[in-house]
Design brief:
Length: about 300
């Protein structure tokens, strides 16, 4: 009985050793070398896994950084220039600096300006609503306000205003990860370069209908009148498909286009309140002349009246 047990132990041990040898040989033959710098780059990244860099996660982005010869097409919007510089130092490459970007909602069609024509009673999703019909207002280009952009934001940088029913971006929290841009089925959210003091001027409308139809569907819709384009001295405004667009690169934030817009579709954010302009001298002189003429007429009328007996 003891011999059987001994033979069994020897057999099992030999089988185990043989299997271990086979596994070791196989692991050495088929093992995949991984550059240790990938781990270093991944540690330098913020770890948000937001996909703003164009790949699904920080680990694949780190792998791309190590494999790529240059950083021309690689940028982490969450970490920014400081993060990319740290990665460049690890890999011995040159970092490409980019201006930080912030999301902008290009729609001002709140219930006050864009009245509802029907009620949507389906799943609370902008994408689902957009796939079913044009929307619950006369403007088919406007925001649905159901919050798909809010759901995908991992930085708590965008919220739906309960009064306007429109999404609002918190510039201080927005990282420009592009998640809300991709989530919006109406394409009303755009990434624009961050300016000094978070100032920005943009056309808050995406309605491509002709002027009359656009104005009828929303009181603050762009009607493509070209007044803003004529006023701009920097060729920063383009009119295409009955809609004005302000190029954030060319725009100098002079604000001259804002007051000439007849529908108030151009929005200015982060600027001090405008001071009322004093009346021009020629207008003052004209007003004085008119007052003088009125006084002279009143004197003539009084002088022509017959005295009471």
């Amino acid at each position: 009985m003891s011999d059987i047990i001994i033979y069994s132990i020897i057999t099992v041990s030999a089988t185990g050793v043989l299997a271990a040898i086979i596994l070791f040989i196989a692991s050495q033959k088929f093992k995949v070398f991984e550059d240790p710098r990938i781990d270093q780059v991944e540690e330098a990244l913020p770890g948000a896994n937001c996909g703003g860099c164009g790949v699904p996660g920080c680990r694949p982005f780190a792998e791309n950084c190590v494999k790529s010869d240059t950083f021309d097409d690689l940028y982490c919007p969450v970490g920014g220039n400081s993060c990319m510089k740290e990665i460049a130092d690890i890999l011995g490459k040159k970092a490409v600096e980019k201006a930080p970007e912030v999301a902008v909602v290009q729609c001002s069609g709140c219930p006050k300006h864009r009245k509802r024509t029907n009620e949507y009673d389906g799943a609370k999703s902008c994408k689902i609503e957009a796939s079913l019909y044009s929307g619950n207002t006369a403007c088919s280009y406007g925001c649905s306000g159901l919050g798909d952009c809010v759901d995908v934001c991992t930085f708590d940088a965008i919220h739906i205003n309960p009064e306007t029913k429109l999404p609002e971006v918190i510039d201080g929290k927005c990282t420009g990860c592009n998640a809300c841009v991709e989530a919006c089925p109406k394409n009303i959210i755009e990434l624009r370069p961050k300016k000094k003091k978070d100032r920005k001027i943009f056309v808050s409308c995406m309605n491509k209908d002709k002027g009359g139809a656009a104005k009828k569907s929303c009181a603050v819709a762009c009607i493509g009148c070209k007044k803003c384009q004529k006023e701009c001295k920097f060729d920063a405004i383009i009119i295409e498909n009955n809609l004005a667009y302000i190029d954030p690169i060319k725009c100098k934030l002079c604000r001259k286009c804002v007051p000439v817009c007849p529908t108030n579709s151009i929005v200015e954010i982060g600027f001090p309140v405008r001071k009322p302009k004093p009346p021009k001298k020629d207008k003052i002189v004209k007003a004085k002349k008119e007052d003088k003429i009125k006084k002279e007429k009143n004197v003539e009328i009084i002088s022509t009246k017959k005295p009471m007996k």
